[in-house]
Amino acid sequence: MKNYRLQIVTPEGTAFNGEVEYATLPGTEGEFGVYAGHEAIITTLNPGEVVIRQESGETALAIGKGFAEVGGDHLSILTEVALRDSQIDEKNVEESIRKAKEALSHVETLSVEDVTLNEALIARSTVQLNLKRRKSGSHSSR
User: Fold this and answer.
1) At 121, phi and psi to the nearest 5?
2) End-to-end CA distance of the chain
3) Which of 6, 17, 51, 126 is the most exposed place for a label (fewest CB within 10 A)?
4) Rounded to 10 degrees, what is the CA torsion of 48, 125, 131, 129?
5) pLDDT (tens digit, 9 = 90+) per residue, 21-36?
């Protein structure tokens, strides 16, 4: 199978850079896969998992909102966050979700921007929590 270059960049730096066989992405229109030679597109991404297949196996990263540029020989992802399960602290993520839900329970006192930020935090954190629990086999309650 032909490989292509995948680069995932966040504000903190490069989260992944390497040759891959295949990747699935959480597009705003639904999940889609990218093989080498994929039609060139630029699309938006929702919080979700990017699953990367290489000869050595599969890797999953939890990402936030972002953009993907697909070309015949490359895939570039720009996202607000990209974390492997080993980088996710389950307790901190659970606490972030709890605080955001608490803030949203008083929605009448929040600005539209604060509502949007808290909803985005919940979406991003839920993806991280799901990845962490799936990879670790943990199913603790929230």
Assistant:
1) -60, -45
2) 42
3) 17
4) -150
5) 999 999 999 999 999 9
